[in-house]
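Data availability (excerpt). The following record was deposited with the supplementary files.
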Amino acid sequence: MEKIDLKCDGDKYLWQTLVHPWTRRRLRKTREFLKKNLSELNLVPPNAFSKKVGKILCTGAKNDFDEDACVCVGAEYHYTNIDLDEPFPFIEQDFDYVFCFDVIEHLMNPLLFLRELRKMDTPVIISYPRHPFAPFWGSCHFHEFGEKQFYTLLSTAGFKVKHRTTFSTRIWWWKYLLNFGIRPKLRFILLMLGYPRHEIYYVEPN
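Predicted structure:
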């Protein structure tokens, strides 16, 4: 059987951010979360986001979504571009934050990854898409956590949740009614129930 490619192509975010309404909403909500929660810590001036105020490590492949999120808080940013299922050599570098946007669900061993981040002793912003059950995941999504399980994962890795937000949107709901078959109808029902749901966490080392 052919091995599934775990890595995400960062280039795809350019198209999604420009034309896909779900991604545009996700980017807007992420910006709002960062500006609110980083400002509360007085690390980012509330009305001066063009000023460089920190150094951020973005986990995963280089992409426009992460870059836009870093620019909106006026930060210098760097990418890992390495295999995140293995220990990675960034623990000696000095970063103010780590951004982990839609990475956890693609990893074979998310606990190892989070423990590696914990060694950096740095606050982490994590975004995570939640679907109700496995048939609605993409082929490269390997994990689905309930809220309690995700909090347990973070706690086991040595983090505590300081801020959290969740949101969903009913994008293109009508197309599921126009398609034949059981699966489109199930997707419509889940959409009306608020899935897929996106969650953003601000976590700190314990």
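Summary of structural features: The CA atoms of residues 18 and 24 lie 7 Å apart.
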